[in-house]
Amino acid sequence: MVAIHVNRYKCGYCGACVGVCPTGALELIETWIEADENCTGCGICAKVCPVGAIEVKK
Amino acid sequence: MKDQYDVVVVGAGPGGSIAAKTAAQKGLDVLLIEKRQEIGDPVRCAEGVKKISLRRHIEPDHRWICADVKGSRIFSPNGTKVEMSEAISGGEVGYVLERKVFDRALAYEAAMAGADVMVKTRATGLIIEDGFVRGVNVMHLGDESTIRSKIVIGADGVESKVGRWAGIDTSLHPSDIETCAQFLVTGVDIDQDYCDFYLGNKIAPSGYIWVFPKGKNQANVGIGILGSKSGKHRAITLLSDFIKEQMPDARIIEMVVGGVPVKGTIERTIANGLMLVGDAARQSDPITGGGIINSMDAGKIAGEVAAKAIAAGDVSTKALNDYEKRWRATIGREIDSSLMVKNTFVKFTDEDLNSLAYSLKNVNFTSMRLMDLLYALFKANKKLLWDLRDLFKDVVKNEIDFNYRS
Ligand SMILES: Cc1cc2nc3c(=O)[nH]c(=O)nc-3n(C[C@H](O)[C@H](O)[C@H](O)COP(=O)(O)OP(=O)(O)OC[C@H]3O[C@@H](n4cnc5c(N)ncnc54)[C@H](O)[C@@H]3O)c2cc1C
Ligand code: SF4
Ligand code: SF4
């Protein structure tokens, strides 16, 4: 299960989250972020996002 | 659409376009792919470059130059100013670019040199056979296909996946990335001659705020903070606070977000049939965050090495090691020094920063570079900067090390 939610209305599609994801679960497709099942819910992407567009689902 | 090339370059940022241009000039059959539909947009950059370094790659053109700056000013938390001008400062004297136009101009040059270019074309994976990278899977306008090549050059920026697909772990820890936000502002009085930097753990924890002039009364006002300090405070909110306080009349006419690798050199940037350049190879400078010139320099080396390897019929890591060796001897050495500076810098309190700036109050910097500035700081603050002694041991021993590549 993908453990994060990206708020597409907030995201500036910069790719910083993709660069820090330890498992390679994220991908920046042009103007949105996709997450796959490799996501462990570690929350690093959410911490680093410059605008706070990512939330780790409980 | 052709499905076979000598070289496929993934990503049409400065690194990728220069790699493609160089390889095409050497007579190779080159394809440059870019996932965005508009090269260079959205921007994720403050757009500052050193003039002489830029000239190594392209003649300056007014169509993509917004401002011509003569110096930098660094402000410590209590406002103590350190000024470096023209002949003296390292990476900060130069132009402020319009990256949207600049990046496309570089892709144009690659195309003029003979490279094919495809936009809205995303690499989705590598073809790997017998331990060799032999091409890329791509998606173009929703359709998937396969393009074979002797060499793939991964120039896919901070979000790079090309290296990871080939088994090179390029992931960044939170303390290996500056998380950034920037506004293009207007309606304020901006000194168009200087790039300004504001330091302080309150305003920009383990980072800084920059004000780069962009012509007329415009400026890129941005912030980078270390990823490990992000969370409670975010780049975007800290920047908004700064603008509210320092430039209450500013009108924001553009917004930029992004991440810059500040990890230092990574262990490996090649595999059989593969080279990584620019932000994909984490080649941005750990202290300034500058990566435009490094990516272009690396792109040029990669293009040259690709031509040699293909001519010799050997694209194994043994042949591509030339790339590794050449970038590490130049870009890599600077990155290593800057990493040392970064590791010291992130530990400073505001009091430390103030006393460092104060120690330079009466020093005249009219003939100095960034490394000279650091050396002057070191001499006046040995205790605080003791961790940097190795950096200067080299410098003192060998004058050449003083000269950061221009
Ligand atoms: C806020 C901020 C301020 C900065 N300020 C400065 C500065 O003032 N001066 C400076 O020198 N540097 C600065 N930098 C750093 C600089 O922007 C980068 O180092 C530089 O852009 C790196 O160039 P590059 O070619 O390696 O990558 P990029 O310019 O990031 O280009 C990578 C390209 O690859 C494409 N791509 C990615 N994945 C794929 C794929 N799978 N398929 C196809 N295409 C793909 C991307 O869309 C992108 O166009 C700043 C960075 C940030 C974030
Ligand atoms: S770091 Fe944040 S703004 Fe940037 S692409 Fe990821 S979710 Fe979007
Ligand atoms: S939560 Fe961790 S594993 Fe999941 S996408 Fe974010 S960084 Fe990757």
Relevant terms:
heterodimer, A: 58 residues, Alpha-Beta Plaits, two-stranded antiparallel ribbon, 17% helix, B: 406 residues, alpha/beta, FAD/NAD(P)-binding domain, disordered C terminus, binds flavin-adenine dinucleotide, binds iron/sulfur cluster
In whole angstroms, how far apart are the ends of chain A?
A: 12 Å
- Based on the structure given, which CATH architecture of chain A is correct? 2-Layer Sandwich
What's the alpha carbon Rg of chain B, rounded to whole Å? 21 Å
The CATH topology of chain A turns out to be Alpha-Beta Plaits
Order of helices and strands of chain B: EHEEHEEEEHEEEEHEEEEHEEEHHHHH
Helices of chain B, by number, come to: 10
What would the average pLDDT of chain B be, to the nearest integer?
92
| Assembly state of the chains shown | heterodimer
Number of domains of chain A: 1
Ligands present: flavin-adenine dinucleotide, iron/sulfur cluster
- Judged by helices, strands and strand pairing, the structural class of chain B is alpha/beta
Question: Could you give a short account of the major beta sheet of chain B?
Answer: 8 strands, mixed
Share of helix of chain B, binned: 25-40%
CATH superfamily of the largest domain in chain B: FAD/NAD(P)-binding domain
Write down the secondary-structure element order of chain A: EHEEHE
List the helices and strands and how they pair.
The complex is a heterodimer of chains A (58) and B (406).
Chain A: E1 4-6, H1 16-20, E2 26-29, E3 32-35, H2 44-48, E4 54-56
Antiparallel strand pairs in A: 1-4, 2-3
Chain B: E1 4-10, H1 14-25, E2 30-33, E3 48-50, H2 51-55, E4 65-68, E5 71-75, E6 81-85, E7 94-97, H3 99-112, E8 116-118, E9 121-129, E10 132-140, E11 143-154, H4 162-165, E12 177-186, E13 194-198, E14 208-213, E15 219-226, H5 235-246, E16 251-261, E17 270-271, E18 274-276, H6 292-312, H7 317-345, H8 350-359, H9 370-380, H10 389-397
Parallel strand pairs in B: 1-2, 1-11, 2-8, 5-13, 11-18
Antiparallel strand pairs in B: 3-7, 4-7, 5-6, 9-10, 10-11, 12-15, 12-16, 13-14, 14-15, 17-18
Helix pairs in contact in B: 1-3, 1-6, 6-7
The structure holds flavin-adenine dinucleotide and iron/sulfur cluster (2 copies).
